[in-house]
Amino acid sequence: MNKKTKLFSALAFSTLLLTMCRFYDAGERVTPINGLSCQGYTDYFGKGSVVSKGLECYYTCQQEVVGPLDFETDPSLSASKEDLDRTLCSATAPQSTPTEPVAAASATLAASATAPASPTTASSPTAAISPAALTPLLTGEITMCDGGLKLISFRIVEPPPDLTDKTLAVQIAGRESTCTVNPVNTSLLTCSIPRSMAFPAQVVVQLDGALVNEFSLDGVGCINIDPPTPTPAQ
Fold it and tell me: Helices (H), strands (E): how many in the chain?
């Protein structure tokens, strides 16, 4: 093809473009796919002959709007939103970089894994194995000691503990003693004693098998007690 022929072809094509007109359909734009906005059109030549019909569309990508795009038919019939994202937005879509968030999450998990290792709980086993301190039952004060009556009364602490359903065991001078709360004066615990008893005498009081009192009885204030002898209990 010589230069004159090429020039004539170029001029003819330019003239064709200049004489072609596009008219848009009346009505609102349609959205066949989310993000795709289209308007129907008809192309005409200068003398009124129809060239083509179709849809002129614009597609909204994440960072820009792509268009105009010409479709002969409704693009939703042959393509999905994923197809448009892949073909129209691949050049502008930001590249995902999951490596850093994963690393950050891994670091957070690693740090969290060490946080529960609190040495405080493990280093204080004493509270679990140490028995609770028991309140003494008696003050150690003697209000009455009579060998003739074979009775002795001890002052109970204030406020008095509840002895309901409790097993009370008292030993005086190594011998079992029968004791009861004095019905006349409930602040006293009255116990049996032998007529003959050596002083000092050890008093041991237990509640439900737990030691609550242990003290020495010197015999001061006791009456009708025989002189200290190793005589067995009467």
Answer: 5, 13
What pLDDT does 216 receive?
Answer: 93
Q: Which residues of the chain have pLDDT under 70?
A: 1-20, 45-50, 90-133, 227-234
Q: Token pair of 109, please?
A: 């998990």
Q: Per the confidence metrics, is the pTM higher than 0.85?
A: no
Q: Which residues contact 125 (CB under 8 A, 6 or more apart)?
A: none
Cβ–Cβ under 8 Å, residues 86 and 68:
no
Helix (H), strand (E) at residue 36: strand 36-44
Q: Are residues 81 and 143 both part of a single domain?
A: no
- 149 shares a domain with 83: no
Q: Is residue 207 part of a domain?
A: yes
Considering the domain boundaries, does residue 8 fall inside one?
A: no
Is the residue at 171 inside a domain?
A: yes
CATH code of the domain covering residue 147: 2.60.40
Spatial strand order in the sheet of 138-146: 138-146, 151-156, 188-192, 179-181
Asked whether the beta carbons of 172 and 218 are under 8 A apart, the reply is no
Residue 192 domain-assigned?
yes
Instruction: Determine the structural domain holding residue 213 and report its residue range.
Output: 138-217
Report strand pairing: 168-172 vs 201-207.
antiparallel
The pLDDT of residue 23: 78
Residues 6+ apart with CB under 8 A from 216: 200, 201, 202, 203
Let me know the angle formed at the C-alpha of 72 by 68 and 70, rounded to the nearest 5 degrees: 10
One domain, residues 142 and 213: yes
How many whole angstroms separate alpha carbon 192 and alpha carbon 149? 9
